Amino acid sequence: MTEMGLQMFKKTTKKEKPGATVIGLSAMVIGNIVSENFVLLDGGIEGDITAPEALINGLVMGNICAAKEVEIAEKAKIQGDVVYKSVLVQQGAKIFGKLIHKENVFA
Fold it and tell me: Residue 46: beta bridge partners?
């Protein structure tokens, strides 16, 4: 298989970005997160997430709205709908809701 072919199978998990909203593994947020920057969630939230981009690898009991892209990692458990322009769902992720594609998402 060519190197380009192998690129298709590599995980693209993002790292923390400057200015990111980070919810660590041991944190649980009760309420909504509205961010103008990237959101990285390893912990949990009981509420909605609205951001241009997000990486979810924890528990979300609410909806997610991502204007650009949302990555749902292998340890993610989402109990709500995900509205996105672009989505990546890794094997092992659990979504108990709808995936809703919208070309123009206003986060």
Answer: 30
Sequence ranges of the domains in the chain: 18-101
CA distance 23 to 87: 20
Return d(Cα 81, Cα 48) in angstroms, integer: 10
Condensed to tens digits (0 to 9), the pLDDT of residues 53-77 reads 999 999 999 999 999 999 999 999 9
Long-range contacts of 76-80, Cβ-Cβ distance < 8 Å, separation of 24 or more: 80/48
Q: Which band of pLDDT confidence, cut at 50, 70 and 90, is reported for residue 105?
A: confident
Tokens encoding 34: 């509205």
C-beta of residue 66 within 8 angstroms of C-beta of residue 81: no
What is the C-alpha to C-alpha distance for residues 105 and 66, in angstroms, rounded to an integer?
Answer: 7
